[in-house]
Amino acid sequence: MDVGHCNLDGNADVVEFCPHDSFHHVLAASTYTLQEGDRPSRSGSISLFNVDLGRVDLFCRLKTAGIFDMKWNPVGGNTSRPLLAQADADGCLRVHDLQNSVDGDALKEAHNQKVSPDMCLCLDWNPSATSISVGLSDGSVSVISFEETKVSILQEWKAHDFEVWATTFDPNQPHLVYTGSDDCKFMGWDLRNGPSQMAFQNSKAHQMGVCCIAKSPDNPHTLFTGSYDEHLRIWDVRSISRPVNETSINLGGGVWRIKNYSVVPGLILAACMHNGFAIVKVDGNEVKVVETYKKHESLAYGADWYRGSIHQEDKKEKTIVATCSFYDQLLRVWVPESDIF
User: Fold this and answer.
1) Structural domain spans, the chain
2) Rounded distance, CA 89 to CA 178, Å?
3) CATH 2.130.10.10: does it fit domain 2-334?
């Protein structure tokens, strides 16, 4: 069931529902648009929407540099108010404060840290929201200390040969950072041992670049990766040399983003680039697609779940999904139809 849609003001690449109580209805969508010419520029924006089963209403839009990734701070961190961090084409990490309002000035920039002359491509908060890892277009990774009053670079190192598209803290072991890159390598770094020493490296499993990494919220040993080679892979972090399910699952398009559903264990939403969006059920080593959504007509990049469930008039609980596609600049909000919910 489609709830609504909106055309954004640029190429749409990220959507993120706010995880904080009282703000679950807030959806952030970002853009990245390359203006070619003698002096090329990379512009972007963040749009905020009020979303529920009956509406998708824009209430704030902030112009900024072209955005490759953005994430809200985790619930239970060192601050209770919603903060939205962006990794952008200017090589900056910017953090925005969501004001408790629904007017046009709801999003205020609180911090702006220049990380590199290269582009910032991805980011992740650690579980306590005291630091943010950032992946860069030159293959480097930076870990930024985050405090209410200031941000500063804690560590930075050359992690990969090419662009770093994924960086993720392990929520169960927050001293561990996982990274993935265009060099086809999936790597882990122990921040206690100094940035130049890796915890592990796997360069054989992925046939193309590693696009996304997500730890399972249900099993502390399970981790998922997505790749340009169209496969979603399952890993056991206790045996990282090969995927637990070596056949994994082919989703028919480059797996650009994966999001775990917080309500139903083992349920993953995947943005599959050239093949729309898929909802995948993982039960041990058994993996299957339970639903697909193909109403976008361009590269499927951004995807996220509403945090929680919504009661319909028939008393059944439903959830909402937001997805976006790149060149058609389209945001769609919809309700999955599978009986697994």
Assistant:
1) 2-334
2) 22
3) yes
Residue in the block written with tokens 């999955």: 336
Q: Where are the beta strands (DSSP E) in 77-205?
A: 83-88, 92-98, 107-114, 120-125, 131-136, 140-146, 151-158, 164-170, 173-181, 186-190, 198-202
Reported as half-sphere exposure (CB side, CA atoms, 13 A), residue 90 has a value of 13
**pLDDT value at residue 311:** 61
C-alpha–C-alpha distance, residues 40 and 195, integer Å: 34
* Residues 230, 252: Cα–Cα separation, whole Å: 6
* CA-based R_g, the chain, Å: 19
Q: 10-57: per-residue pLDDT in tens?
A: 999 999 999 999 899 999 999 999 988 777 889 999 999 999 888 899
Average pLDDT estimate for 78-105? 88
Among the listed residues 101, 149, 146, 141, the one whose alpha carbon sits nearest the alpha carbon of residue 122: 141
Query: What is the SS3 assignment for 249?
Result: strand
Residue corresponding to tokens 């041990």: 284
pTM for the structure as a whole: 0.94
Give the whole-angstrom CA distance, residue 137 versus residue 139: 6
